[in-house]
């Protein structure tokens, strides 16, 4: 979700669910240690439970970045060992690290020593020709011995050469049974299923045998599916928020951010799918998309877009 789940996106999704654990986009250790740390890590005080997802392969650097997470109010630190993009491979981290379980273990051990927060690992079920179940078992056992107790598993293997990142999300077949077998073989560890989960019904089914379910791009494209999560997944008695209630909360946030110098499109680009499949949704998206980038764009652009979805406020 690189360049997608930034702080504005997470604040928007938080208006839909108070309980869902949200993830940051993957932030590299170099960006935090040598760049503008605050721009990457700052978040709204009401952000709720959020995991900081890190990319890197140097234990000392990851430890320093993990230590920052608590200062910025994060509830978990996640090491990404599943991203197959060329940019990530060139940095010697992401999915290619699955071929080096001992190095991943050293990274995890350093992170665990640096922060009281839970340290988790997100990975694939295999990479390239390292895709046998015994190899996956060894990877999990090695990393768990370093202090990781929770694994988020994208139930596809990754091909580092020959497939684009998009193809790596679609071409290798999903195999949920592999993740279920991990849970059987490592009953004291926690496993969250990732990959192909597109609604709360599928998430509920995954939770029958596993400890968590991660919804990725579908939650971005169709964010309102999260609105019933507190009721249907977490058992909350709180009423499901309407789209109008979500927009009202975002309006206050947008006004404050605009006053602080944030450009409108940095926020509203995450809201394009809020009215998906409803009458007027296409016009809503078009108006926002065409007008939020103007230098003089104000919240009036959002109010005008809402005129295309009458009755939904």
From TrEMBL:
SUPFAM superfamilies: FMN-linked oxidoreductases
Domain DUS-like FMN-binding: 1-301
Active site: 83
Residues reported to bind FMN: 53, 122, 154, 194-196, 216-217
Molecular functions per Gene Ontology: flavin adenine dinucleotide binding; FMN binding; tRNA binding; tRNA-dihydrouridine20 synthase activity; tRNA-dihydrouridine20a synthase activity
Pfam families: Dus
Function: Catalyzes the synthesis of 5,6-dihydrouridine (D), a modified base found in the D-loop of most tRNAs, via the reduction of the C5-C6 double bond in target uridines. Specifically modifies U20 and U20a in tRNAs.
NCBIfam families assigned: PRK11815.1, yjbN
Record-given protein name: tRNA-dihydrouridine(20/20a) synthase
């Amino acid at each position: 979700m690189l360049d997608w789940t930034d702080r504005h996106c997470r604040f928007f999704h938080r208006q839909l669910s108070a309980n869902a654990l949200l993830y940051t986009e993957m932030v590299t250790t170099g960006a935090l240690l040598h760049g503008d740390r605050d721009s990457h890590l700052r978040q709204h005080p009401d952000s709720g439970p959020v995991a900081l997802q890190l990319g890197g392969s140097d234990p000392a650097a990851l430890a320093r970045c993990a230590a920052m997470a608590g200062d910025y109010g994060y509830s978990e630190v996640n090491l990404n060992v599943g991203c197959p993009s060329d940019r990530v491979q060139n940095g010697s981290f992401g999915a290619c690290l699955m071929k080096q379980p001992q190095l991943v273990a050293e990274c995890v051990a350093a992170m665990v020593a640096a922060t009281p927060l839970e340290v988790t690992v997100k990975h694939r079920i295999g990479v390239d020709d390292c895709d046998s179940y015994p190899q996956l078992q060894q990877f999990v056992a090695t990393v768990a011995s370093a202090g990781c107790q929770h694994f988020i598993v994208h139930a596809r293997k990754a091909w580092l050469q020959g497939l684009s990142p998009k193809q790596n999300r679609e071409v290798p077949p999903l195999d949920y049974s592999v993740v279920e077998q991990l849970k059987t073989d490592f009953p004291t560890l926690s496993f969250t299923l990732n990959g192909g989960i597109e609604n709360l019904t599928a998430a509920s089914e995954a939770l029958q045998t596993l400890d968590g379910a991660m919804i990725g791009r579908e939650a971005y494209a169709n964010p309102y599916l999260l609105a019933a999560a507190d009721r249907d997944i977490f058992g909350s008695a709180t009423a499901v928020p309407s789209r109008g209630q979500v927009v009202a909360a975002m309006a206050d946030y947008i006004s404050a951010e605009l006053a602080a110098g944030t450009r409108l499109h940095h926020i509203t680009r995450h809201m394009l799918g809020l009215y998906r499949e409803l009458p007027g949704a296409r016009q809503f998206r078009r108006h926002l998309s065409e007008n939020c980038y103007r230098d003089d764009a104000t919240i009036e652009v959002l109010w005008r877009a809402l005129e295309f979805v009458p009755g939904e406020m």
